[in-house]
Amino acid sequence: MFNLKNIFNEKSGEKVSKNTSSSFLGDGKAILDAVDDGVLAVDQKGNILAINPAAEQITGWSGSDAAGLVFNSVLKITNNDGAEMLDISNPVNRVLRTNENFTTRDLFIKTQSGKITPIFLAVNSIGGSNSGVVVVFRDISKELSDNREQAEFISTASHEMRTPVASIEGYLGLALNPATATIDARAKSFLEKAHENTQHLGQLFQDLLDITKAEDGRLKNEPVVLDATEFARDIWEGLKPKAENKGLEYIFMPDHNATGEKTIMPVFFIHADRDHLHEVLNNLFENAIKYTPSGTVAVNVTGDNDSVQISVKDSGIGIPAEDLPHLFQKFYRVDNSETREINGTGLGLFLSRKLTESIGGKLTVESEYKKGSVFTVKLPRITRENAESLKAKEDAKKSEEHQKIEQKRNQREIEEADRDINAILQDETMEHPNIETANNQSTPALTEPTAPENPKETENPQTQPMQTQEVLSAPTVQTVSQPQPQPQESAQSIQSVPQTVQPAQPTQPIAQNIAQVQTQQAYNQQTTQTIQQTNPSAASQNFSQTNPINTPVQPTLNDIERMKIEYAQKMMAQRQK
């Protein structure tokens, strides 16, 4: 008979060859050679006594090279970060010291070629403290790949199906609403059943999506400070109509002491993801109501200095002892006469445990068949001082996020105002062609001067100083320097002289509305008054030089930008009202 203990003899501390280990194994070698899982026999000192072909294939080590070596030279166990596990953190060392068996699917090994391989790992102690351990491991790369593909399919299918189901649910809700439809009692009963089943189907799709995220590690945790008692009470209140419809005694224990009188309970602060905890507690409370035909459902919140316990106790059908170990497995349902008529998928408790673990908690159950069950969520408790500090950080973060949202909203408001006022300016341009919109980045055209009235002015062009032609527009002044035209050139040749126009710069919004674009007459009067105040004798000459043919003044980019900003501010002020 094959007995693995035979290889752990008094010579186990010596250098062991492959032939020696084969003699230790005896007839059992054929059995180990046929096993698909890798197997290592390790003595109390950590030396490898035996290695089977599957282990050789997974690790990349041959049996002759591995026999007699320290196990972590061959089986380099790493964590998720790729760091090799040494000392007591290594599962093999832990079992060698404690004799407590160990099993996991969350570790990796680094093969001889340097490849990182995910493994299932089981380490079992053989005999007493003077014996070694047997290490069994399996490459689960393909299994994980298949699981990812399956999860991706479930996630995609659930997402695609959830949209039409939500649409159907919405239309059924409208059909059942007296304000939108009138139906007879018989049709209403049909629609209510369809609406209920549609809601159930939508929740199933949501559960499937959450499960794929939980298994892939894609669950997002956004912990916030919560008062556990108030949080549990809100969920309890939301399910109260369901319990009352079944005639159950529905109790929130923190509101009552043993005599049924009101009492004041201490505040239990926790730091957890609000949505995840809500889904867990809502599922547990709803299950208690669902699986309790009659009797009592009681929710309680207790705690000590380190932890908070939120529990729900019912006097329902209970859970058979043989089903308890499998209760939190995916798609597992208790199958008996009491549960067959109750709808369920076997996903709720599996997801509840995953969500509880994701927020640093633990979900447990105690139950006795046909007497009732108690489900408890245990979470770390934080002090009031820590709660206040975390709450201040949360408020600061919310304020910052709110400011960013407001900035984006204001930017959209300005963009909308920009489109609106550009449309208005475009209409104005149709009526007054000299007005240009802000998006048209052209500048006002230079005024073409007429030929000089006095012929003497062109007799000696070499002696004439350079003249400056000024183009005035409200409210900025743009200047272009040009030489005095030669006698043989026509007035039209001035247009070919390079023009340098200073671009308009944005200014503060001071215009009141589009009507403030000045008319030519008003602007000429203002300009004349300004020149007369500064140099009365040159007023007539200067104005004739700056605006020789009295052309209409065009609004500049400054005017248009000011009007746009003013218009946007007015729109935002109106919307805030």
Tell me the major beta sheet.
6 strands, antiparallel
How big a fraction of the residues is strand?
15-25%
Assigned CATH class of the largest domain: Alpha Beta
> In whole angstroms, how far apart are the ends?
90 Å
Helix/sheet category:
alpha+beta
Number of domains: 4
Number of strands: 15
Instruction: Calculate Rg over CA atoms.
Output: 42 Å
Unreliable residue stretches: 435-453, 455-521, 538-552
Q: Name the shape in a single word.
A: extended
Number of helices: 16
CATH topology of the largest domain: Heat Shock Protein 90
Rounded average pLDDT: 75
Any idea what the CATH architecture of the largest domain is?
A: 2-Layer Sandwich
The neighbouring-strand order within the major sheet is 2-1-6-5-4-3
Q: Can you identify the CATH superfamily of the largest domain?
A: Histidine kinase-like ATPase, C-terminal domain
Question: Portion of residues in helices?
Answer: 40-55%
What are the SSEs and their pairings?
Blueprint lengths: L17 H8 L2 H7 L3 E5 L5 E4 L1 H7 L3 H4 L4 H4 L1 E3 L12 H8 L3 E9 L5 E10 L7 E7 L1 H36 L8 H32 L6 E5 H11 L1 H6 L3 E4 L16 E5 H17 L5 E8 L3 E8 L33 H11 L3 E7 L3 E9 L3 H48 L35 E6 L4 E6 L37 H15 L4 H8 L10 H20 L1
Parallel strand pairs: 8-10
Antiparallel strand pairs: 1-2, 1-6, 3-4, 4-5, 5-6, 7-9, 10-11, 11-13, 12-13, 14-15
Descriptive account of the structure:
It is a single chain. Helix 7 (141-176) packs antiparallel against helix 8, helix 8 (185-216) crosses helix 12 and helix 14 (520-534) crosses helix 15 (539-546). The chain has helices at residues 18-25, 28-34, 53-59, 63-66, 71-74, 91-98, 141-176, 185-216, 228-238, 240-245, 274-290, 348-358, 384-431, 520-534, 539-546, 557-576, and strands at residues 38-42, 48-51, 76-78, 102-110, 116-125, 133-139, 223-227, 249-252, 269-273, 296-303, 307-314, 362-368, 372-380, 467-472, 477-482. It has 16 helices and 15 strands. It is extended and about 95 Å long. The model is unreliable at 435-453, 455-521 and 538-552 (pLDDT under 50). A 6-stranded antiparallel beta sheet has the order 2-1-6-5-4-3. Strands 8-10-11-13-12 form a 5-stranded mixed beta sheet. The N and C termini lie far apart (90 Å). The protein has 4 domains: 4-139, Beta-Lactamase, CATH 3.30.450.20; 145-216; 223-335 and 344-386, Histidine kinase-like ATPase, C-terminal domain (Heat Shock Protein 90), CATH 3.30.565; 403-452 and 466-485 and 500-577, no CATH class. A hairpin with a 3-residue loop joins strand 12 (362-368) and strand 13 (372-380). With 577 residues, it is of the alpha+beta class.
